[in-house]
Design brief:
By secondary structure, the protein is mainly alpha-helical. It has two domains: 156 residues, no CATH class; 60 residues, Herpes Virus-1 (2-Layer Sandwich), CATH 3.30.40. Helices cover 57% and strands 3% of the residues. It is built from ten helices and four strands; from the N terminus they run ααααβαααβααβαβ. It is an enzyme of class 2 (transferase). This is RING-type E3 ubiquitin transferase (cysteine targeting).
């Protein structure tokens, strides 16, 4: 009876939730990408192309440093340490540590180096492509196996037959439902905006707001004397007028500016003199 309780306690202590194991992999990838981005920002200070040919070596040094200060020292990656997970020490002797380094650091460097420097070797590139496709397939199979068993989420863990253990014992992961609620509310708000904004006539609202804030209404009179010179600018975009047109007042618009606003807003007014008309005429230079 006592032995049974002891075994049960040991299973609970070594239990690691699947979500923690998957999140540790995501955290490791994010940490690596973050460090690579920092290194790229530092290298931007140097002359262009000075160290571009050493990109595989730079990534190799970075991955080696991460492996040395995580797996070799603490028997856990940085992502696993953040989630209180570690490998079983008795499952990682010196030989397996060396093999783990070979699989996680040396082989990726060899692949990147071949892809970077042996681009003219078509047979090598085809072999690398076949190897990558095989790895994708094996990772998929191992992922379904992990979902069923709850152990060894990565292909390296499966090959080396190493398991995780929880440093917090049987402590379960707490979920912040307040964060999930905020995300759901924000997602619903964005969907509402995406649905309603296309129905809002922005040009008409802008015109009505401008008329509402104006203290004195401008006189609504027509002035057919259109002024067009070399320095004439569009009354709407304030750029040199292209295909000059007017709407009945003396101000000149680009063809696209006037036509687009009249199509978007049936009550479009001249934004200079507030003249309102459905006229659309080409400016004729006499």
């Amino acid at each position: 009876m006592g032995s049974s309780n002891q075994n049960t306690g040991k299973i609970k202590t070594n239990f690691v939730p699947r979500v923690n194991q998957l999140d540790s992999i995501q955290l490791d990838n994010e940490i690596t990408n973050l460090l690579r981005q920092q290194i790229q920002n530092i290298l931007q200070v140097l002359p262009p192309g000075l160290l571009s040919h050493l990109q595989p070596e730079i990534n190799f040094v970075l991955n080696s440093a991460l492996w040395n200060f995580s797996i070799r020292t603490h028997y856990a990656t940085f992502g696993q340490q953040m989630l209180s997970i570690a490998y079983e020490k008795d499952q990682l002797p010196s030989a397996k540590l060396a093999l783990h380094y070979l699989l996680t650091t040396v082989l990726p460097y060899a692949k990147e180096n071949a892809q970077f420097r042996l681009t003219n070797w078509s047979r090598v590139q085809k072999l690398l492509q076949l190897a990558e496709n095989a790895l994708v397939l094996f990772n998929l199979v191992n992922f379904f196996k992990f979902l069923r068993s709850g152990t060894r989420p990565s292909l390296v863990d499966c090959l080396l037959r190493i398991n995780h253990r929880s440093l917090d014992g049987a402590k379960r992961r707490t979920i912040g439902y307040s964060y999930m609620t905020r995300e759901l509310v924000w997602a619903g708000f964005m969907e509402l905006l995406g649905f309603t904004i296309p129905f809002v006539n922005y040009h008409a609202l802008k015109r009505k707001l401008r008329n509402l804030l104006r203290i004195e209404a401008a006189p609504q009179r027509q002035d057919e004397h259109v002024e067009l010179t070399v320095d004439t600018r569009c009354a709407y975009c304030n750029e040199r007028v292209i295909l000059p047109h007017h709407m009945g007042c003396r101000h000149v618009f680009c063809y696209l500016c006037l036509k687009g606003n009249q199509l978007a807003d049936a009550g479009f007014q001249c934004n200079v003199c507030d003249y309102r008309s459905e006229t659309f005429r080409k400016v004729v230079v006499l």
